[in-house]
Amino acid sequence: MTETTTTIALITGGNRGLGRAAALHLAAAGADVVLTYRSNTEEAAKVVTDVQDAGRRAVALALDTTQPADFPFFAEEVARVLRECWGRDSFDVLVNNAGAVTATPVGTTDRSAIDEMVGVHFTGVVLLTQELLPLLADGGRVVNTSTGLARFTGDPSYSVYAAVKGAVEVWTRYLAKAVGGRGITANVIAPGPVATDFGGGYLRDDEELRRALGGNAALGRVGEPDDIGAAVAALAVGGLGWVTGQRIEASGGTFL
User: Fold this and answer.
1) Residue partners of 20: CB distance under 8 A and separation at least 6
2) How many domains are contained in the chain?
3) pTM value?
4) Residue 160, CB-side half-sphere exposure with 13 Å CA sphere
5) Cβ–Cβ < 8 Å for 227, 253
6) Which helix (H) or strand (E) holds 50?
7) What is the pLDDT of residues 10-37, one digit of tens each?
8) How far is CA 112 from CA 99, 100, 102, 124, 168, in A?
């Protein structure tokens, strides 16, 4: 297969929620997609079909971002897919989106919950990015995912989740400096309250909560997945190549 100059984006946790929205908006912007999923092959296959229906190419790969020992093997799989599907040895955009949430109420937090939050939201992001950097094209872009809770304070049950996301924001600034010589940008997207299935879909399904949280936003509503997908696409393939090391909050102006 001859080499293509099509933009290729790799999105972790691209089978559902914000990752799925990012994949579809990137496809709409003209990018092909490699998405990862942890276990739900049917969800991943559906996103692949949706991207293909948008006229772009997509591949789904299994990945557990809490298992860094598997990252070298995953990088080899990515390299294989790039060669076989695109005739390339690199991709252009890395979106570190995969995540989960575990309650960590202040005063009753278990060590296992801390380890889980650090593992998926920080250790996994740092080590996976490190593993994939040799495959990321010069002039590429990295988009890491944070949360509005790193700026404003919400339910104390999210204390460790928010704190670890704050660490991602700091690390992203250092990453931006480290890879700038290759023309690679690194930025953070920080969603506010968004109606997805995250955390069991509590915000998506509770209309009273949606109204209450939406009342805290300048735009008067909570976010939808498409709001964040569009913002990710703007950072990843839009005309923001001179923006790096920045935190972009997509929260509708929550708690301004």
Assistant:
1) 14, 43, 47, 225, 229
2) 1
3) 0.94
4) 23
5) no
6) helix 41-53
7) 999 999 999 999 999 999 999 999 999 9
8) 16, 14, 10, 16, 20
Q: Is residue 256 part of a domain?
A: no
Domain annotation covers residue 137 = yes
What is d(CA 18, CA 200) in angstroms, rounded to the nearest whole number?
14
Beta-carbon-side half-sphere exposure of residue 224 (alpha carbons within 13 Å): 4
pLDDT confidence of residue 2: 41
- Report how far apart, in Å, the C-alpha atoms of 64 and of each of 6, 22, 48, 68, 71 are: 27, 19, 19, 8, 9
pLDDT for 196 equals 77
Enter the tokens of residue 134.
């040799």
Question: What residue has token string 């924001």?
Answer: 169
Cα angle value 108/112/115 (rounded, 5°): 115
E strands of the chain, at which residues?
8-11, 32-37, 58-62, 91-96, 136-145, 185-191, 247-250
Report whether 222 contacts 203 (CB < 8 A): yes
Structure tokens at 64: 């557990």
Position 158 pLDDT exceeds 90: yes
Is residue 1 one of the residues assigned to a domain? no
Q: What is the CATH number of the domain that holds 47?
A: 3.40.50.720
Share the mean pLDDT of the chain: 94
Does a structural domain hold residue 241? yes
